[in-house]
Amino acid sequence: MAYWLLKTEPGEYSYANLEAAGRDVWDGVRNAVALRYLRAMQPGDQALVYHSGKERAVVGVAQVATEPHPDPRTSDPRWTVVDVEPRGRLARPVGLAEIKADRAFQDWELVRLPRLSVMPVEPALWERILRMGGGVVR
Predict the structure, then answer these.
(1) Is residue 67 part of a domain?
(2) Between β-strands 46-51 and 3-8, what pairing exists: parallel, antiparallel or unpaired?
(3) 107: buried, middle or exposed (CB in 10 Å: 19+, 13-18, 0-12)?
(4) Does some domain include residue 76?
(5) Count of domains forming the chain
């Protein structure tokens, strides 16, 4: 199992939207590096859901439900999507400022490449974020 971070603008699609849907297509990824990461996802992988924009915080956990597949909303074969399901909110959001203040995260893409919308999360960083957020509330 691998760990990932998925960014979303909460005004367009929030973790609450994913909870309401129960399962949904994670789409809209167009950056080549982010698409490479998305294409590496497998069912059962876990993902932190990060609200970008004004919020800038990890808010919840999702699980990858499908293998990567072509985006059904376009005929362009370059665009790939996965289906994800909510697994729970963090007890409290973990803000970007808090992450940046912790030296353990200094080499992570979220800190180094802030515009990247999909990125891997090392297991130690995954556990650290879950602890910082007080765990997952289902």
Answers:
(1) yes
(2) parallel
(3) exposed
(4) yes
(5) 1
Residue 113, φ and ψ in degrees, nearest 5: -125, 70
- pLDDT score, position 24: 98
User: Is residue 138 included in any domain, yes or no?
Assistant: no
C-alpha to C-alpha distance for 116 and 10, rounded to whole angstroms: 16
Q: Nearest 10 degrees: CA dihedral of 15, 17, 22, 28?
A: -80
Q: Which domain holds residue 60?
A: 3-133
CATH number of the domain encompassing residue 51: 3.10.590.10
Contacts of 33 (CB under 8 A, 6+ apart): 113, 116
Q: How many residues does the chain have?
A: 138
Question: Does pLDDT of 131 surpass 90?
Answer: yes
What are the pLDDT digits (tens) for 38-89?
A: 999 999 999 999 999 999 999 999 999 999 999 999 988 889 999 999 999 9
Task: Provide the whole-model pTM.
Answer: 0.96
Instruction: Read off the pLDDT band of 6 (50, 70, 90).
Output: very high
